[in-house]
Design brief:
15 strands, alpha/beta, globular, about 30% helix, five-stranded parallel β-sheet
């Protein structure tokens, strides 16, 4: 049986939502699961159903699209749909799959959703390997990074720095992407810009942790999660 990816549309404009739904229905490997007119409705949907791909508008009532996306610990793959091109960099930082400008042409829509297949195949490969190491691209080379060696990861706008015992790797990828590749039970995101290895923590309080001799701040929005994990 062919794989189908479940899709959720988060869009408050009825016409735009219907266009995307019609496009989804035309693609054999996509399965429509619903339309949410605001982020809070979408949050409930994500809690109760398995969603693989979310079409997310930026300008939503109550809670804006990117702010909503930042609240999700394990978001599905996301394709941004908007009439505003100036937010593309924010989308990159949040590791969105693609960025569709309204009005959306079907051929451009198809190009975006085809990325779902490529990314999913890559995720499966890395998932099979990530108990021991991950593979990253650095200066056109594929580099094996042993998970046991990773101390912490720092995120920047267009790349991350992976600090190990003896080295620092700088692949062009988002912090959210590297967070998805690292084992959740061994690593903890403590700030929008930092992920740390839990077994490398040397000290912590309610505002900072010390790992690998470096003092790193705990982000305000991550404080409850971090304190819950670290006790």
């Amino acid at each position: 049986m062919a794989i189908k990816y479940t899709c959720l549309i988060v869009e408050d404009e009825p016409l735009a939502a219907e266009v995307i739904k019609d496009y989804i229905d035309q693609v054999p490997f996509l399965e429509f699961k619903g339309i949410c007119t605001d982020a809070l409705f979408a949050l409930e949907k994500l809690k109760n159903e398995q969603i693989d791909l979310m079409f997310l508008d930026i300008h939503l009532p109550k809670l804006k699209g990117f702010d909503f996306l930042r609240t999700l610990q394990k978001p599905p793959k996301v394709i941004i749909t908007t009439a505003y091109h100036q937010y593309a960099l924010d989308g990159y930082e949040l590791d969105v799959l693609d960025y569709l400008m309204k009005p959306i042409d079907f051929s451009r829509f198809l190009k975006a959703v085809n990325k779902m297949i490529t990314v999913t195949k890559t995720d499966v490969h890395l998932k099979n390997e990530k108990s021991d190491y991950i593979i990253i691209s650095v200066k056109k080379m594929k580099v094996k990074v042993w998970i046991d060696d990773v101390v912490y990861v720092e995120g920047f706008k267009e790349y991350v720095k992976i600090f190990t015992d003896d080295n620092c790797f700088q692949p062009k990828m988002s912090l959210t992407r590297i967070e998805q590749l690292l084992p959740q039970n061994r690593f903890l995101r403590i700030h929008r810009s930092f992920i740390v290895a839990k077994d490398r923590l040397e000290a912590f309080n309610t505002t900072d942790v010390v790992v690998g001799g470096k003092q790193i701040p705990i982000g305000r929005s991550y404080k409850d999660l971090v304190m819950g994990q670290l006790g």
